[in-house]
Design goal:
By secondary structure, the protein is an alpha+beta fold. About 15% of the residues lie in helices and about 55% in strands. A hairpin with a 2-residue loop joins strand 1 and strand 2.
């Protein structure tokens, strides 16, 4: 039986960690679990990792196992900051 703490987006291909998870925050737990991950992608051309990227993943728990159901990728810091600023504005209105 897995838990949200066990979930990762680390992905290895041909001996190379092509998606390297740097951090995660569990936003919600239950039958539907939402996790925000910070990660880097391997860039073959430069043989190095990309700048930090972010993704929000939703998992559905069924029979004690988590299955990925949806994701939203935030591809750079500029986009992340725009999302943060917009959410801050919206939540400050209340």
């Amino acid at each position: 039986m897995s838990t949200p703490d066990d979930l990762t987006i680390d992905y290895e291909e041909n001996g190379i960690l092509t998606t390297k998870q740097l951090d995660k925050v569990i936003l919600s737990k239950g039958a539907w679990t939402t996790i925000l991950f910070r990660y880097q992608s391997w860039v073959s051309a430069s043989e190095s990792y990309s700048e930090d990227k972010y993704t929000i993943r939703r998992y559905q728990k069924r029979n004690g196992e988590y299955t990925p159901r949806s994701k939203f990728n935030i591809t750079n810091a500029k986009q992340a900051k725009m999302i943060i600023a917009t959410l801050q504005d919206w939540t400050d209105e209340k």
